[in-house]
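Entry 14. Structure prediction run on the chain below.
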Amino acid sequence: MTHQATTHDEERLLRRAIELAAQARAGGNPPFGSLLADGNGRVIAEERNTTLTDADITAHPELKLARWAARELGPETAAATTMYTSCQPCPMCEGAIRRSGLGRVVFALSGEQLNALKPGGDFPEVPQQGPTLYDEARVPVEGYY
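Output returned:
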């Protein structure tokens, strides 16, 4: 993660993402909003968090935009986009953004700043165990990529 000064146009787009976050909150959802802009700074898609109204823990605006971009944009077009988002993408969304081929992300609030504003902080870690059964698990994967 790099911290850079933003341009006037980037700040305008971040302010729009923050407006979308306020709209999400006004609609009964967590306060997060995001948009995708093309290389000229033109907004091509917007989303708000809808995790509560959709009863879907994955309905983050960043994930919805990454899915849309992967489905609707060609690789070159996606790579030329920038996601502007009210908060730094969570690990789930970051993974989707990477897979979607978006060019970059500019965020207003960091994950650390967000957690400082939340009474309970971040979500608890879930213990994981593995790898196990390599010889069996590799069979359906080998030769796929």
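The beta strands are 33-37, 43-48, 82-87, 104-109.
Filed with the rest of this week's runs.
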